[in-house]
Amino acid sequence: MSVYKNNSWGRTRQPKNLAGPHGTEATASANTDPSAATDGFATENQRYLHLYFENSESNNKTIEVYGYNHAFGVWFLLYDTAGTQVKFTNINNTSSYKVHEIAGVDRVFFKHTTHGSNAIVANDKFFAAGSTFQGS
Whole-prediction pTM value? Predict the structure, then answer.
């Protein structure tokens, strides 16, 4: 007897890790812009993007977020529905958690824009998740 397994993306109350199973870190490409429709991570058309970044060093790092919409077929710097650019800037030996409303964005791409001396290192942590509801 077969068991039906729902594979639709559907609504999620709990944030769903975009990089894979819970605990999987997302990657940020160093100074590289997205170009292909398969770059980055699928948001599964979730309404909210949850981001966590922990900088393990005493320097400033920046991660910009790009969005992709299948209807347009182009990548763009991502701004949330309130008009705020989605990015982490100048995080110096600390951690930060942010939630942005990104309704309608099909994929996200993370670009590490700081210089080589402030590169993302193995001890840094970066996570991305999506959810239908804002709760954290």
Answer: 0.88
Cα(10)–Cα(12) distance, integer angstroms:
7
**Side by side, which strands form the sheet with 16-17?**
16-17, 125-131, 48-54, 95-101
Q: Give residue 78's Cα distance to chain centre.
A: 10
Distance CA 79, CA 99 (A): 12
For 19-37, how does the pLDDT look when each residue is reduced to its tens digit (9 = 90+)?
999 999 999 998 899 999 9
Q: For the chain, what's the residue count?
A: 136
Which tens digit of pLDDT belongs to each residue from 79-108? 999 999 999 887 788 899 999 999 989 999
